[in-house]
Design brief:
Elements lengths: L6 E14 L2 E14 L3 E5 L6 H8 L8 E10 L2 E2 L5 H7 L4 E4 L3 H4 L6 H12 L4 H14 L5 H4 L9 H13 L5 E5 L7 H18 L2 E6 L2 H7 L2 E6 L2 E7 H6 L4 H8 L11 H4 L15 H5 L4 H4 L5 E5 L2 E4 L8
Parallel strand pairs: 3-8, 3-9, 6-7, 7-8
Antiparallel strand pairs: 1-2, 1-4, 4-5, 9-10, 10-12, 11-12
Helix pairs in contact: 4-5, 5-7, 7-8
Bound molecules: adenosine-5'-diphosphate (ADP) and magnesium ion.
């Protein structure tokens, strides 16, 4: 035993832009983070911070033709996905990397039975017979704890509840035993008890299948319960990154502290993030050279200064070192 952890994914200075009527919008602005093998990395930040665009960039599912990766690397098991061929990325997506999005209905085809949709993933990625694919799909529904899977195979998506549909989407994402799963707000559309069941299911499948997970959420409570490491995004950038315990115990960036103050507890009624962090999420259209969070707080230094550095201030703990927002 050497105790060395390998990173299954390394995102390095990723830049993704959208061509819009108002000019080039930089939705992901030099984002860097890593995903260690077998671990869950949470990406957190308010809506519009660039979390989904980061996820879509990794698997090259950006809306076309507006979305483009303009720089950086996405190293997955030693291969750069930014420059992989379309054929290779299609093989990796759904095969070695499973993707789960927020709204289960958008991942399912309303006119096909559940069984056919799950079996199809096996047919595409593993050239097996129809019968074997059907059996594998039934097994998969069992794995995601769907009661009476043989019967559910004959249902159409609209027959199922939101929670059951999200289990099907998880089954689709995990069918080929991916080594990395990217889950973008997988429980946001579900009510709280179902949300807990789905997160619990994902954690159990992760230990059974030994996969790594990127879990995207705007909810630090979800992060606290599920993640080993946390990446905090603001304005298309990573402002802080650390092990989960470390981040909750010693948040160093003003934005992270603001997010932490907005977590509801039993003693404290829920507050919206906007009530604790004043101002609005930055518009990504106007490119800012300085610190984006200073800009939000109305500090002129946010515009005049150079972009703050991103430094490892203690082992594994990275923070954007803006003189105003970095508070050791
Ligand atoms: N198809 C698109 N065209 C133009 N801009 C987009 C598109 N999709 C996302 N964006 C912009 O990219 C930014 C980041 O969005 P997103 O990654 O979806 O945020 P999050 O997932 O953190 O809520 C937002 O400013 C959003 O308006
Ligand atoms: Mg999103």
């Amino acid at each position: 035993m050497t105790g060395v952890t390998h990173n299954i994914l390394e995102v390095d200075k990723l830049i993704t832009s959208f061509e819009t009527d108002r000019g080039l919008l930089r939705a992901v602005d030099q984002v860097s983070f890593v995903v260690p093998e077998g671990k869950t990395v949470g990406i957190v930040g308010e809506s519009g911070c660039g979390k989904s665009v980061t996820a879509m960039s990794i698997v090259r599912l950006l809306p076309q033709p507006a979305g483009k990766i303009l720089g950086g690397r996405v190293m997955f098991k030693g291969r750069d996905l930014v420059h992989a061929s379309d054929a290779e990325i299609r093989r990796i997506r759904g095969g070695e990397i499973g993707v789960i999005f927020q709204e289960p209905m958008s991942a399912l085809n309303p006119v096909h039975r559940i069984g056919r949709q799950v079996a199809e993933v096996f047919r595409i990625h593993r050239k097996i017979t129809k019968k074997d694919a059907w059996d594998a799909a039934t097994e998969m529904l069992k794995l995601v704890r769907i009661p009476a899977p043989e019967m559910r195979m004959m249902d159409y998506p609209h027959h199922l509840s939101g929670g059951m549909r999200q289990r099907i989407v998880i089954a689709l994402a995990l069918a080929c035993r991916p080594s990395l799963v990217i889950a973008d707000e997988p429980t946001t559309a579900l009510d709280v008890t179902v949300q807990a069941q789905i997160l619990d299911l994902m954690a159990r499948l992760q230990s059974e299948m030994k996969m790594s997970i990127i879990l995207i959420t705007h909810d630090l409570g979800v992060i606290a319960e599920t993640c080993d490491e946390v990446v905090v995004m603001y304005g298309g950038r990573v402002v802080e990154r650390a092990g989960a315990e470390e981040l909750f115990a010693h948040p160093l960036h003003a934005y992270t502290r603001g997010l932490l103050h907005s977590i509801p507890t039993l003693e404290k009624p829920p507050k919206s993030i906007l009530s604790t962090i004043p101002g609005m999420v930055a518009s990504l259209a106007d490119h800012v050279h300085g610190c984006r969070f200073c800009q939000r707080m109305g500090r002129s230094s946010g515009i005049t200064r150079d972009r703050p550095g991103f430094a490892e201030v203690s082992p594994g703990h990275w923070v954007e070192t803006c003189p105003e927002c970095y508070q050791p």
